[in-house]
Structures are given as C-alpha cells and as structure tokens.
C-alpha cells in the first residue's frame, strides 16, 4: 500500500460516525498483547499521518514498554479525504478533541474509563491532546505534547505562509503524496485554516487549568513554528506539567532528538504510570508547580 508504515504493523480501518457522516479512519495497533501496560495514543501534526511517523511510535512503545495506537485523522494518510470544497473550521482542533476522538475510541473498542489512555501529540496533535484532557479531565493517564500550540504566534503564521509557497513551487506536494492518499486534502485543510484571519484569535490557554493528568511538554529551541512561550504557557496553567527544552531541535523532536526524547518519555511514564491502574476512574491528585528540564 502506498504510504504503508515502516514498522510493518497491520493497517486497519474503522468506520467512525462524526460530524453528520461516516469516515474511514486509518489506524495501527502496536504491541496489543501488552494488556497490562499503558496504552499510548499517537496524534500527528498538521501534515502528518500513520506512515509519516515512520518507526517512531514502535520505537517509543519499545522504550516505554507500552501498547500503541496510531491513527490518521480525517483528511490525512489513508483516511477519508476532506472534500475539496470544505474548509476546516477555526475550532477544528476543539471539535477533533471533544467529538471525534470519543467517536474514534468507541469505533475501535477502547474503553477510556478502564484504559485511561496516554497521549503523544505532535504540533496540532499536541494541541488536540491538551484539549481532550481539558474536556475529559478524568480520562487521560498522561500527556506528552511535542511542539504544541496554545495560541497563534507571528512566527507560526510566517512559517505556514512559507510552506504554502513551497507547496506550490517546490516538490513538497510529491513528497507528501508518499504519505497521503490525497495530499491536497491534507495540505490545504491545514494551511487554509491556519492562514484564516479569524484563526489569529485561536487561543486555548483558558482551558488548560482543567487538565489534571501529568504533562510532559517538549519544545526545540530551533522550532520554526513556535517559541518556548507555548510550553511555558502550559506549565503556568496545568499544575502537573514538566518541561523538556531541547537544543539542536526544530519542530519535530522525534526526528531531531529521537533517542533523548525516548529516554525522557520512558522516564516520565515510569514516574507516573504506576499511580494509574486499569479500571480506575476519577482524577489523579493535583500537584503544584512545574519541573523544568533543559537539554
């Protein structure tokens, strides 16, 4: 299959009823036999997909010793493409967190009250993970958010404008076609909404105080799409936040610093997962303050 994930895990498709119609959602299970270990759900970036992660989810699950669930959101990878006439709404990440993810978990048989899944979210996927934890604070066991967005910075918009020019004038479209059945669906869905003037007011900081689970927020000093203000803002509002700030790292820590990142995530999950047991419901206790790590 074009765009098949390099970890060679079997690709599945779920029928997910959401936003008034049924969507075909690509997903992959990693190490499903590890039933007594945490479930780590991978939420990709604005141009990502199951295949675009390459081997990182499998490598991270091995480092953590957990199960994994990797999906391509609607409009990405081999999932149902976005119709050409439709634009993502400004609150698309809110909708993905509040409405799509519960529908997806139900379709693939994840009982979130029993599983208390963990999330690894990259960029837009990190924002969706934060929103999910804010809307459903009793559900997640923990979050790892890499290069997430909590408000719109001028730097982000400038880089997305540059990406738009590159999509039209360079080989970017053909490169994305290796990972998406419909690269135009993936690219323009993301690019159009981020460059919508109304999106400049998008801001989720007021919701972050509802997050109860531990959060590891990761940012590279060389990230062309955001500054440290993004993860510092999480630490100011979500009380169980730890920060990992990485040198020699751009927007994709899993590509630029994979070994260091895997060690940090494994240690983070080990510190917190033993407090969560399958079948437990209710929220973990709050702790005050944030731990900052600079690497």
From TrEMBL:
Residues 272-295 are annotated as: Disordered. InterPro entries: AB_hydrolase_1, AB_hydrolase_fold, AB_hydrolase_sf. The keyword Hydrolase applies. It comes from the Bacteria. The keyword Hydrolase applies. SUPFAM superfamilies: alpha/beta-Hydrolases. This is Alpha/beta hydrolase.
């Amino acid at each position: 299959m074009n765009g098949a994930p390099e970890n060679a895990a079997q690709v599945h498709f779920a029928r997910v009823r959401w936003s008034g119609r049924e969507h075909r959602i690509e997903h992959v299970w990693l190490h499903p036999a590890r039933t007594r270990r945490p479930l780590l759900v991978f939420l990709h970036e604005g141009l990502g997909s199951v295949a675009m992660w390459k081997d990182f989810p499998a490598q991270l699950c091995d480092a953590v010793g957990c199960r994994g669930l990797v999906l391509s959101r609607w409009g990405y990878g081999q999932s149902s493409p976005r119709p050409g006439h439709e634009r993502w709404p400004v609150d698309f990440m809110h909708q993905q967190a509040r409405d799509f993810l519960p529908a997806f978990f139900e379709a693939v048989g994840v009982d979130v009250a029993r599983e208390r899944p963990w999330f690894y979210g990259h960029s837009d996927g990190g924002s969706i993970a934060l929103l999910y934890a804010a809307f459903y604070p009793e559900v997640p066991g923990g979050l790892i958010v890499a290069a997430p967005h909590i408000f719109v910075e001028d730097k982000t918009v400038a880089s997305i404008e540059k990406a738009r020019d590159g999509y039209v004038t360079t080989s970017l479209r053909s490169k994305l076609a290796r990972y998406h059945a419909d690269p135009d669906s993936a690219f323009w869905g993301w690019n159009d909404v981020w460059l919508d003037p109304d999106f400049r007011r998008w801001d989720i900081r007021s919701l972050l105080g509802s997050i109860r689970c531990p959060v590891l927020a990761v940012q590279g000093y060389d990230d062309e799409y955001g500054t440290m203000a993004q993860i510092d803002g999480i630490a100011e509002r979500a009380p169980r936040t730890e920060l990992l700030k990485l040198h020699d790292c751009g927007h994709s820590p899993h590509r630029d610093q994979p070994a260091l990142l895997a060690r940090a995530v494994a240690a983070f999950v080990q510190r917190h997962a033993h407090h969560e047991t399958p079948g437990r419901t209710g929220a973990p206790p709050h702790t005050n303050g944030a731990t900052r790590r600079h690497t």
